[in-house]
Amino acid sequence: MANRTVQPTSPESHRARPEGAAPDPAAVFDWVDRRAELRARAGLTRRPRPRPAVDPVLDLASNDYLGLVRHPRVVRAAADAALRWGAGATGSRLVTGTTELHTELEEELAAFCGAEAALVFSSGYAANLAALTALTGPGTLIVADAYNHASLIDGCRLSRAEVAPVGHRDPDAVRAALAGRDGGRALVVTDSVFSVDGDAAPLTELAGACRAHGAALLVDDA
């Protein structure tokens, strides 16, 4: 059966314009309202729930696994930095927004991870988009777990590389995809812990598959 999109049947959704009349500027984005109405009817809308500064509720949806957000030393250091450096970077990292704090943090992170260098982004989403578009491109095969985070999926789309989705946590499917490529570069992309289901990627097996087939491995270790 062909896919069909059901549109609202209210009179506002089918406005008739008199012949020769100029388009109504206010109606240019009527389609946004119609789509929002459809999403609401389907139960697909979400509303943020602002939390107070002091919340007695135990938050199990937070990324603050180590509880550092309210650690006294962390809070004090952030306050001291704001007093010294101000409340913003004043520009992008590429132009005027890189401060000594950025380079100091990146050097410490690189040393901690035993890496040659590190680069800090404003969010994990931005980091994944940047990594995938920088490390791939036309002529690259991306082998991606079907349950990867949305940021990895969007990064694959923006990369202009060939993308081969494989079954969730399936090293055999990864090996088959790598073995079937016609030469060229290859990058296997996976979450470390998948945020929806909470299960972990078989990183040891994936690393072995990449070594065996001359591919690189990118892990979103959020």
UniProtKB/TrEMBL annotation:
EC number: 2.3.1.47
Start and end residues of each Aminotransferase class I/classII large domain: 56-222
GO MF entries: 8-amino-7-oxononanoate synthase activity; pyridoxal phosphate binding
Keywords: Acyltransferase, Pyridoxal phosphate, Transferase
Biased composition (Polar residues): 1-11
Region described as Disordered: spans on this chain: 1-26
Known catalytic reactions: 6-carboxyhexanoyl-[ACP] + L-alanine + H(+) = (8S)-8-amino-7-oxononanoate + holo-[ACP] + CO2
SUPFAM superfamilies: PLP-dependent transferases
Entry's Gene Ontology BP terms: biotin biosynthetic process
InterPro entries per record: Aminotransferase_I/II_large, AON_synthase_class-II, PyrdxlP-dep_Trfase, PyrdxlP-dep_Trfase_major, PyrdxlP-dep_Trfase_small
The keyword Nucleus is assigned to this record: no
Name the record gives this protein: 8-amino-7-oxononanoate synthase
Organism phylogeny: Bacteria, Bacillati, Actinomycetota, Actinomycetes, Kitasatosporales
